[in-house]
Specification:
The complex is a heterodimer. Chain A is α+β, with helices and mostly antiparallel strands. Chain A folds into two domains: 2-83, ACT domain (Alpha-Beta Plaits); 91-162, Alpha-Beta Plaits (2-Layer Sandwich), CATH 3.30.70.1150. Helices cover 31% and strands 41% of the residues of chain A. Chain A has helices at 22-33, 62-74, 104-116, 137-151; strands spanning 8-17, 39-46, 51-60, 78-83, 90-101, 120-125, 128-135, 152-157, 161-164. In chain A, the strands form two sheets. In chain A, strands 5, 6, 7, 8 and 9 form a five-stranded antiparallel sheet that branches. In chain A, strands 2-3-1-4 form a four-stranded antiparallel sheet, with helices on one face. In chain A, β6 and β7 (128-135) form a beta hairpin. The longest helix of chain A is centred in the C-terminal third of the chain and has 15 residues, at 137-151. In chain B, α3 (59-73) runs parallel beside α4. In chain B, β15 (398-402), α16 (406-414) and β16 form a beta-alpha-beta unit. In chain B, the strands form four sheets. In chain B, strands 3-2-4-5-7-6 form a six-stranded parallel sheet. In chain B, strands 11-10-9-12-13-14 form a six-stranded parallel sheet, sandwiched between helices. Chain B is built from 23 helices and 20 strands. Classes of the chains: A alpha+beta, B alpha/beta. The A-B interface holds A 1-2, 17, 19-21, 24-25, 28, 32, 50, 63, 66-67, 70-71, 73-79 and B 1, 127-128, 131-132, 135-136, 139, 141, 156, 188, 190-191, 299-300, 314-316, 318-320, 323.
Chain lengths: 170, 591
């Protein structure tokens, strides 16, 4: 019955005390309870107040995702949890470094496609490019898939950063 | 993290700050075991005037003793152990305290900060290992941070849903000096659990209660953790409403068992009337309980027709496994008080006819007398031993701890508890070996009282070494062993689920418990026949020494009622003669 619920994708932003081990604590919660981490980014946001922001993308049923937020709320260093998918109109961005190795027609095609995506070339040899691309996760997925048949060698992605539209802060 | 700002107090070493912080927090007793990494603290404790240190024989015993102390007093239990194996030995106790929500402050020694990460002698990643089994933990890298951390530790352990915390103290930090001022009573700047329930939801709850025709109170350990006021409010509310009430294992004693509105334990080994009432009720008022799987049985068949009100201080407990209709996040005492106020304002006219059908149905279930057993012949039935123990101690100031297994369930069924804080048992984690050290902790807290650990012979061997602790500190605890020479509960499951293939559940090579007691410096008693029981129990109570009471009982007795795994509340097995319906594959996978 519980298994019949469809899976949803949620982006959750967590404001935490920037203390030693806080990231391990959050990740430990996910792994300990079997929750999914599709992507995770973390960085300090306020050096004076010593707070960091962790942005996690997770997939699960609605009941599990609500549980997940409640469990996060239980952690002592967690100050605030915002469900970027449910509670707000929000924007998601990610950065990818994409290495493609090809020559001839495929090389030309890869450069043309990178133009269409407004990617920048940050490394080049006679037989390879490294592209830098920012955008929504879906845009990055599309670009990588297009590069695949052209000679995709390596992809390094940062994970999703998200922010709510409008003037209100977290 | 607040630094030790503008501290102008005396310059103390880290070790002295730890002890001073304990004194400032009102700690009188700590349970511990020394080692290299905590020598500075032990040096401060040497012949200390204000803090009494109870030396145990294994660090697991220290934590269980602190748990027994905490649950029988309402104060946090304090543990002091060394680094490496000292800390890892404490892990079982910490996991136990986390699941049963018991406030414990566990201080662990650690190698010096410059040695951390170098695989030093007796080094372990204590903070890493205990992260998932504590409410929170700290590694103190700098003595400047120590005063605030010590007080934060007590705050976190005792506020909101209580739980264990660990403070890891590197040895160089214990030696380093700084000025100590007790931090303001602000508590942790972040962690502010909500205690007042939402008034709108409380009004909704009372509305549902007023219109109920088949109501039921389902209470749990949260009522006891909240403090004596919660139990007082609960009793008043139950009497005012006239509703029946049942409780989980951890909640026994919050409501007096002798009261006619009490239905008995609920859940896997709960009474016939409790489980049926839970299944058939139309309004379930859940206070301080978490819908644990021992209580719910098959989730999709759990109380299908009821409106569920859930009061809990931990928001993550709500809608975790069972969806509820009226969730109220708050402290039990506060919310019960608010429910009382609203109920009294509503002043629903007492209407005995309203519940006549429901109580008639309940009495019909009660008539089944599901806890009955036959004490016939020369072999003592375990239930009979517990009933005799109850009868001979019920007028005394008695505290009970238990180990884990059949004897634990029989205790919950046959020993009647009238007050909170009288039963100390490992519910959530189910730790065999909990009872004996817990009895040590209870006796320390209540020196003049009668403290009895109702045990199985398999469980009690796990922490038997704490008998030395009892002898050393003159603690006349009574270890009442129901000796059936099996791991009873495991054997019962193997009988029901695995075709009687008793794989390694028979305890061979049992020690002679009477000789063992004497070897430790205690007193041993053995009973084989039912007519010997009463006199032997009286002897046990009269002896002013720790006692191992070896009560040989029926080896094949099974604990009923039982809801087999994967079954619903109204599919209870009531006795050996009941054929359990085929257990499904899914059912077999549940513990």
């Amino acid at each position: 019955m519980i298994k019949d619920q469809p899976n949803e994708r949620r982006c959750i932003a967590i404001l935490v005390d920037n203390e030693a081990g806080v990231l391990a604590r959050v990740i430990g919660l996910f792994s300990g309870r079997g929750y999914n981490i599709d992507s995770l980014t973390v960085s300090e946001v306020d050096p004076e107040k010593h707070t960091s922001r962790i942005t996690v993308v997770s997939t699960g049923t609605a009941m599990i995702l609500e549980q997940l937020k409640a469990q996060l709320g239980r952690l002592v260093p967690v100050q605030k949890i915002v469900d970027m998918t449910l509670d707000h109109e929000s924007l998601e961005r990610e950065l990818a470094l994409v290495k493609v190795r090809c020559t001839g027609e495929k090389r030309v095609e890869s450069l043309r496609l990178s133009d269409a995506f407004r990617a920048r070339v940050i490394d080049t040899t006679h037989e390879s490019f490294v592209f830098e691309l920012t955008g929504s996760p879906a845009k990055l997925d599309a670009f990588v898939n297009l590069m695949r048949p052209l000679g995709l060698v390596d992809v390094s992605r940062t994970g999703v950063a998200a922010i709510a539209r409008g003037p209100e802060g977290m | 993290m607040k630094a030790n700002k503008a501290a102008s107090g005396p310059r103390l070493s880290g070790a002295e700050i730890v002890i001073q912080a304990l004194i400032d927090q009102g700690v009188e007793v700590i349970f511990g075991y020394p080692g290299g990494a905590v020598l500075p603290i032990y040096d401060v404790l040497f012949e200390h005037a204000r803090i009494r240190h109870i030396l145990v024989r294994h660090e697991q015993g220290a934590v269980h003793a602190a748990e027994g102390y905490a649950r029988s007093t309402g104060k946090p239990g304090v543990v002091l152990v060394t680094s490496g194996p000292g800390a890892t030995n404490a892990v079982t106790g910490l996991a136990d305290a986390l699941l049963d929500s018991i406030p414990i402050v566990c201080l662990t020694g650690q190698v010096a900060t410059h040695l951390i990460g170098s695989d030093a002698f007796q080094e372990a990643d204590t903070v890493g290992i205990t992260r998932p089994c504590t409410k929170h933990n700290w590694l103190v890298n700098d003595v400047e941070a120590l005063p605030q951390i010590m007080h934060d530790a007590f705050y976190v352990a005792t506020h909101g849903r209580p739980g264990p915390v660990v403070v890891d103290l590197p040895k160089d930090v214990q030696f380093a000096k700084t000025a100590y001022n007790r931090p303001s009573n602000d508590g942790h700047c972040n962690y502010r659990p909500k205690v007042q329930g939402d008034p709108a939801l409380i009004a909704q709850a009372v509305e549902a209660m007023v219109h109920a025709r088949r109501p039921l109170f389902y209470t749990g350990g949260g009522v006891i953790n909240s403090g004596p006021q919660a139990a007082r409010h609960l009793r008043e509310l139950v009497h005012l409403t006239g509703f029946p009430i049942t409780s989980t294992l951890m909640g026994l004693g919050a409501y007096p068992a002798s009261d006619p509105q009490w239905l008995g334990l609920v859940g896997m080994h709960g009474t016939y009337e409790s489980n049926n009432a839970m299944h058939d009720c139309d309004v379930m008022i859940t206070i301080g309980a978490r819908f644990d799987d021992r209580v719910t049985g098959r989730i999709d068949a759990f109380s299908p027709g009821s409106t569920k009100i859930h009061v809990d201080i931990d928001p993550s407990s709500i809608n975790k496994t069972i969806m509820v209709d009226i969730p109220i996040v708050g402290d039990c005492a506060h919310v019960l008080g608010a429910l009382l106020d609203v109920w009294k304002k509503e002043k629903p006219a007492p209407d005995p006819a309203r519940f006549k059908e429901w109580w008639t149905q309940i009495d019909h279930w009660r008539a089944r007398d599901c806890l009955s057993y036959r004490q016939k012949g020369p072999v003592i039935q375990p239930q009979y031993a517990i009933e005799r123990l109850y009868e001979l101690t019920k007028d005394k100031d008695v505290y009970i701890s238990t180990e884990v297994g059949q004897h634990q369930m029989w205790t919950a069924q046959h020993f009647k508890f009238e007050e909170p804080g009288r039963l100390m048992t490992s519910g959530g984690l189910g730790t065999m070996g909990y009872g004996l050290p817990a009895a040590v902790g209870i006796q320390i807290a209540h020196p003049g009282s009668l403290v009895i650990d109702i045990a199985g012979e398999a469980s009690v061997l796990m922490t038997m070494q704490e008998m030395s602790t009892a002898v050393q500190h003159d603690l006349p605890i009574k270890i009442f062993i129901l000796n059936n020479q099996y791991m009873g509960m495991v054997r019962q499951w193997q009988e029901i689920l695995h075709g009687k293939r008793y794989s390694h559940s028979y305890t061979e090579a049992l020690p002679d418990f009477v000789k063992l007691a004497e070897a430790y410096g205690g007193h041993g008693i053995r009973v084989k026949r039912p007519d010997e029981l009463d006199d032997a129990i009286k002897e046990m109570i009269a002896v002013d020494k720790p006692v191992l009471f070896d009560c040989l009982v029926d080896r094949q007795a099974n604990c009923f009622p039982m809801i087999p795994s994967g079954k619903a509340h109204n599919e209870m097995i009531l006795g050996d003669q009941d054929e359990p319906a085929e257990i499904s594959q899914e059912g077999k996978m549940l513990v």
